Amino acid sequence: MTNAVKPASYRTHTFLYLLAVYIIWGSTYLGIKFATESVPPFLLSALRFFLAGCILLGIGYWKERSIPAWQQIRAAIFVGVLLIGVGNTTVALAVHYMPSGLVALIVAAMPAWFMGLDWAFFSKKKPSLLTILGIVLGFLGLFLLFNPFSAAHATRSFPLWPIPVIVTGSICWATGSLFVQRLPMPAQMTSTAIQMLAGAVFSLLVSFCLEPGAWSTLPGMSQRSLLAYIYLVMIGSLVGYTSYSWLTRNAPPRLTATYAYVNPVVAMFLGWAVGNEVIDSMVGVSAAIVIAGVVLMTLKK
């Protein structure tokens, strides 16, 4: 009976956590957009994950009753800096300057970084022909969307320099996610809390260096930015990131990476419906090509 129940419970947990990551993370792009209207992105990430990390650390200690070894703490700090300190904060920076739906579309290429890094440094498993075709198709869609040689480039209302920033963050995010199953990590909630706190400290240090006067923006924070911040902490971080952390430890990496082709759909819809972002025919076609490519990357899994 125990053996029969356990797989069913695992499948249920996997489905629920995937659904949370699919929907919640798709909505956080617009939430970050609204929050950074008042607060600079690095300081926002620091405050967001510091509060969420403190809350989760208390919950983790109460439920798990375990104190991690120093080796486990170091591993969680390392992963937290990669995932949150670099990965998530670069997204916050990009969303501040670009439409949230387009940033989500660039992040949709995440499975390509997952598989490429996994092949080169971890499992050494060569991608299939279908996967390679999906990677090529996905990057073709991104090129069509941001083609600097097109006539539309001159009329764009946003810069393109955040794109390599997002790519750097995506590579760090994929690397941290792949390390999670290979390092001695603390118990689930405690591990996630330490990762959040490590990412928050890293983001705060970067904010001190790159965002002079950032703290002076807090008293003038608008109601919309404040509500977005609360949503990012309570839902985006505590629920969304905790769900993702569980998936990185318990689900196959390629299954975890499938959130990348649901998030852009949610983000682009919310950006259009709530954030007044423009979705023209070229954006629609490019998005369809990117998402089709990501589906091909993960189809066999």
From TrEMBL:
Entry superkingdom: Bacteria
Keyword terms of this UniProt record: Membrane, Transmembrane, Transmembrane helix
Keyword Membrane: yes
Protein's membrane topology: Multi-pass membrane protein
Sequence ranges assigned to domain EamA in this UniProt record: 16-146, 162-298
Record bears the keyword Membrane: yes
InterPro entries: AA-Vitamin_Transporters (IPR050638), EamA_dom (IPR000620), EmrE-like (IPR037185)
A Pfam family annotated for this UniProt entry: EamA
Protein name: EamA family transporter
Taxonomic source organism: Chitinophaga qingshengii
